[in-house]
Amino acid sequence: xxxxxxxxxxxxxxxxxxxxxxxxxxxxxxxxxxxxxPQPGVRQLIDIAxxxxxxxxxxxxxxxxxxxxxxxxxxxxxxxxxxxxxxLIGRCCNSLLGSFKVWNAATVGGNICLALPAGPMTxxxxxxxxxxxxxxPDRTNGQALVADLVVGDGRTALAQGEIMRSVLLPRASxxxxxAFRQMSLTPIGRSAALLIGTRAPDGAFALTITAAxxxxxxxxxxxxxxxxELAARVDAEAGGFWFDDIHGDPxxxxxxSLRCADDIRRELSADENKHQRPxxxx
Amino acid sequence: xKININGREVSADPRPGQCLRTFLREQGCFGVKKGCDSGDCxxxxxxxxDEPIHSCLYPAHRxxxxxxxxxxxxxxxxxLHLMQAQFLSAQGFQCGFCTAGMIMTAARLDQAQLTDxxxxxxxxxxRCTGYRAITDAIEAKSNADHGSLSEPAVGWPVPAPAGPLIxxxxxxxxxDVAMPGLLHIKILRSTHAHARITAIDGCAALALPGVRAVLxxxxxxxxxxxxxxxxxxxxxxxxxxxxxxRRCTARHENLTDDxxxxxxxxxxATRHGILTAIGMDVLSNTGAYGxxxxxxxxxxxxxxxxxxxxxxxxxxxxxxxxxxVPAGAFRGYGISQTGFAMESAIEELARRLDLDPIEFxxxxxxxxxxxxxxxxxxxxxxxxxxxxxDQCLDLVDQTMAGDGLAAPRGLVCxxxxxxxxxxxxxGDRSSRRLFRRRAHRTCRRWPxxxxxxxxxxxxxxxxxxxxxxxxxxxxxxVAYTAASVGxxxxxx
Lengths: 282, 492
What we know:
Chain A is α+β, with helices and mostly antiparallel strands. Chain A has helices spanning about 70-75, 85-95, 100-105, 110-115, 120-125, 145-150, 170-175, 225-240, 250-270; strands at about 10, 25-30, 45, 55-60, 60-65, 130-135, 140-145, 150, 155, 165-170, 175-185, 195-200, 205-210, 215-220. In chain A, the strands form four sheets. A five-stranded antiparallel beta sheet of chain A has the order 4-5-10-6-7.
C-alpha cells in the first residue's frame, strides 16, 4: 500500500551516502512487510537495495548471504554436495507464509530483522549458527549470532541506525546432518512450530526451536540426548517463551514442539553415519 | 523516472512512499486491482521484468527503467494469451475482480508449481468460485460452449457475456474510473448500538491538512432534488458529496462480516449416543438498516441444525437492528459461525459420553432422503441432491488420523432445468412464475449424479455437462451441489 506519511526516499549507492537516522526512518529491504500495513510514523525510507550488495558468495568460511538477497534467489542456490544441511534452505524458504511472488521481493535480512517468531530465515540462520554482520552508524562493523539478534516477537537487538549487512552460514554448520519439522494449523499456513536438528560429524547434536517460541531457542548437546533429557532441556530453556497468538495455543505449541523434537532426535540418531552421506541440496 | 509499462515508455515520478499498484492505476492500468493492499489477495499481480510480484508491496520507484507488464498487455494483437483463453473457456471466474491477478500469476507458473496449485495460488484469493473453475482453467478444461447458440439457451452452458472483458482486464469495476480532482470520503461510524447525538464538533478533522469539508446531518438536503437545483454552486458541491457518501456506503459497509453476537447450543442425547434434543439460541446484531439480517438468521439457524436427525428441535433466533455498522452476509450467510457452535457442542457432548466424536456424528447425521428440518416444518430450502455426508465423515476421520489423505476433489453437478426459456420469455408475469415453479420441481426431480472419486469417471461425467458454476442466469434454475455437505442448493 502507499505509505503516505513518507516524505523522503533515499537510495544510497555507497555506505557514505547513508543518511542520518531519526525515529521516523525505516530501512526498506524488500518492502513486503513495510508496504503491507500502514506505517504512520515513517517519514523517511532508506532503500538499501540501491547499495547493490552481491546476493550470495561462497568462500572458505561458508555461505555469505546479503541481507538484501531475496528468498527466491536464496532458494535457487545450488549447494556443493557435501553441504548436507543446505537442504534446510529450501525447506525454510517453503515455510515462508507469503506466496512465491512474495519470495521474489522479500529479503533474507528483512525476514530476520522483522523478528517474527515464525520467520523461517531466523530459523535457518539460528540452526546453522549464522553470524550476522552489522553496520553501525559510526561506519564500523560488528558481528552477532542471529540467535542472539532476535530477542522477542518483533524485537531485535539492533539499535537505531544499525543495518544488517549479511549473514554467514559457516561451512562447518552446512556440512552437518540435519532434520526438519514444521507444523501449522493449516497445511500451508503460518508456522506454529518450526524445529531443526543438526548433528555434527563429532556427534554433537543441536535442536533449534522457532515459531513455537517468541524468540529462537537453540539447545546444544555433546551427543544425542535421550528423550527425557531432551524434553527436560526444552522445558527448561523454552519454558518461558511459548508463543501465544491466533496461530496456536502455547500449550499446543509446547506439545507439538516436544513431539517434533523427539522425531528429530530419533531421525538423527537412527543413522549414526547419516552426516557422511550426500543428501538433497537446497 | 522512466518506466516501460506494457511496451510504452512512461515518464512520471512516483511519490516517495508510493507502491507500484497505485502508480500503475494512475497511468490508466485499471486492470491492476486494489484488493487487500497487503500482499494477501494477489489481485494486483503484475510482472516486473517478467517476474510476477504483488504490486501493492512493491515500491514504485524500484520499477525505474524496468519493464512492467499488466493484464492489459497480455494479449498480443487481439490474440488472447493462452492462459486468458483457458480462463475464458473454463469460465474461471464469477465476479471477475480477482481474475487479472489470477491470470498474471497462473501464466507464470512452471511445471513444478502446476503440480501443487493450492501452494502456487496461495495469496490469490477468489471469493466467488471456490477455486474449482479456476483449477479447471489452469488445467485447460472447458466449462462453456462458446459456439453458436443454435441449441436452446436454457440448460446450455453459455459463457458469461462479460468474460472477454474480464480476462483482458478491461471490465470496469466501481473504482476503475479516472476522475480529476477526486476527493475521498471517510465515514465516521457510530460505535454505539443506541445513543443520542447531542453535538458534533468537526474542528479537529477540519484542522487536518487536506480535509475539505466535514458533512453532518445539517448538510442533508431537506427539500429533495428540486430544492437542491436552486442551491448555490458551493452548496451544490457539498450536496453532491453528501449524496456520494450515501451511495458509497453501499460498497463500503457491506464488507462487514456476518453479524452474530452470541450463540447458545444445548444438546441432549441418550447414553448410547442418540441425539434427543437440539436447542439453539442465536442473537445477532445486524447493524443499521438490517438488510441481510433475516437472511443470515434464516440460513445460519437452518443449515447448521438440519444436519442432524433429532426428534426435538428448538431454535430461537433474533436479529437486532442497531446503529452500528451494517452487517452483510459474507461468510456463507453465517453458516460457518452457527456450524462452528453446533459442531463444537456435538464434539463436547460426544466426549462426555465417552464416544468418538466422528462416530457420534455418524449415528446422528441425516440419512439419505430424510427431511432436512431446522426451525420450521415447511418445504425445505435445502434438499438432498446427492448424499456424501458419510464419505465426508470418513475423510475427516482418516485425515485426522494423520495418514495424509488428500482432500476430495469436489463433486460435479449440472444444469438440470429443462423448461425452455423461449416458452415463457414473452409470456406474462404469471406464466413466468409458473416457469419458475416448474423449474423448481424439475430441480427436485432430477437427481444430480454424485461423483465417484475415480478421476476417469469424473471426466466422463463432466463431458458435455456444465461444471459447478451455480451462476445466476436470468430465469434459469441452477442446481448447485455443495460438495462438503452433499446437499443441493436451489437457486433461481
